[in-house]
């Protein structure tokens, strides 16, 4: 359903100073949409501040460095704030610690989002589930108000669009996605610079951990299951923590024929974090649930209280039915 921007216009009319909130662990779309919206509201003569739940993740600082952003866990809401916009989420769960912050604010609020799941956050919502990213709605808002994104906004919108489409690889990409990307480049967006900032700033320790993960890769169940494992010593040797394992769980799926990926990360002696991915018919959410974890059909996780060796046997057995072995 196309978004009705009259609702946004009406909501914004009495507002002069807005705080823009997005979900916890903000990604490219969350941060890019907030920044582009803050620029738009500035051009409409309003004062708008992106408010993040925690510090801005490093890959996106090239954007947040160019505009005043707050960390609401650390800083108070700007005095005189008279309205709130929530971008790229519509659920209390996704707001995490920002949820109680939002509940404590006695201010009108509106939601701008593209996710299907929506709670009642206490205000009107502009939701278009057909949009590739929330940034698509923010870009349309520029059109609605007859304003052109400046270079910062164009870079922020491009970052958001690229992030939520996996750099134009995911199945949500349409001809519209490429047209919007082209328009943003016309407006000054710099895709090469963005890619370098977001994806080519890895610390050496993460690359070394990736090397260890890659050399641990093994195939099981006629090549339909790929498994990698990292022990406590692997993390210690490369100076990494569990947080550095982000993104590694996808590696086994890149092998031809692999339908289910299992990644085992030893977080403490006798404690293993399991990450599961499925690219075929298998439902890894069900497997994780059987071990008190959770997730979706294609991505899920759980924790096991056992050593790595036993965790490997346990998970290989658990996925067996899903790959028809
Ligand atoms: Mn999004």
Identify every distinct bound molecule in the structure, by name, code or SMILES.
manganese (II) ion
Mean pLDDT: 94
CATH architecture of the largest domain: Alpha-Beta Complex
Look at the structure and give the CATH class of the largest domain.
Answer: Alpha Beta
Sheet-strand content, in percent, reads 15-25%
CATH topology of the largest domain: inorganic pyrophosphatase (n-terminal core)
Distance between the termini: 43 Å
Description:
This protein has 325 residues and is of the alpha/beta class. The chain folds into 2 domains: 5-199, Alpha-Beta Complex (inorganic pyrophosphatase (n-terminal core)), CATH 3.90.1640.10; 206-323, Diaminopimelate Epimerase, Chain A, domain 1. It has helices at residues 5-12, 28-43, 61-64, 92-95, 97-104, 134-145, 151-164, 175-186, 191-199, 204-215, 232-237, 284-290, 308-319; strands at residues 17-22, 47-52, 70-71, 83-87, 109-113, 125-127, 218-220, 225-230, 260-268, 271-278, 294-295, 299-304. Bound molecules: manganese (II) ion. Residues 29, 88, 114, 133-134, 164 line the site of manganese (II) ion. Manganese (II) ion is lined by residues 29, 88, 114, 133-134, 164.
Summarize the structure.
With 325 residues, the protein is an alpha/beta fold.
Q: What labels would you give this structure?
A:
single chain, 325 residues, alpha/beta, inorganic pyrophosphatase (n-terminal core), Diaminopimelate Epimerase, Chain A, domain 1, 2 domains, 13 helices, 12 strands, elongated, binds manganese (II) ion
